Every structure is written in C-alpha cells, then in structure tokens.
Automatic annotation (TrEMBL):
Residues 75-96 are annotated as: Disordered. Residues 75-86 have a biased composition (Basic and acidic residues). This is Glycine zipper domain-containing protein. Residues 35-71 form the Glycine zipper domain. InterPro entries: Gly-zipper. It comes from Pseudoroseomonas ludipueritiae.
Amino acid sequence: MTTSHSSRLTLATLTLLALGACANMTRSERNVGTGALSGAALGGILGSFTGDLGWGALIGTGVGAGAGYLYEQSERSQDRSYRRGVQDGSQHRSGR
C-alpha cells in the first residue's frame, strides 16, 4: 500500500467516524461543529500556502465555530418569527 493510498484510507475512516459522532447532536451543536470543522479545513489549506498549516487550522477553527454559532442564532430568530406569525395568523382567524 502506498503512503498516498494509506493517507486517503485514514482520512476516509476518520471522516466516517466524525460523521457517526454527529448522530445524537442537537441542531446547534451540529451547526457550530460544522462551522469549526469547515473553518479548520479552510484555515489549514490557507495556512499551508504560508507554511503555517497548524496556525491556519487553529484560527480557522475559531472563526468557523463563531460563524456556525451566528448561523444558529439566525436560524433560531427565523424560527421564532415564523412561529409568531403563525400564532398571530391563527388568532386573527379565530377573532372573525
């Protein structure tokens, strides 16, 4: 087995294990985790261009987790607005 093939197999196995760990997560945990993982990957790629893969991944993780958190807060706000609109609409109809 070549080193490249072995690395790909290891990466695929780790990816499957990470996805399996997400099965019992809440929506909020998934959004923040996905943001952190995506940020780490993008930060690692960008860091590799400057020769500092570790710092790029670390900074990307923080930025990605923050972005995932903000996305979750936006989703919650939209959910609350939707429920409020449904409730207002049903009160309006029953008042007729």
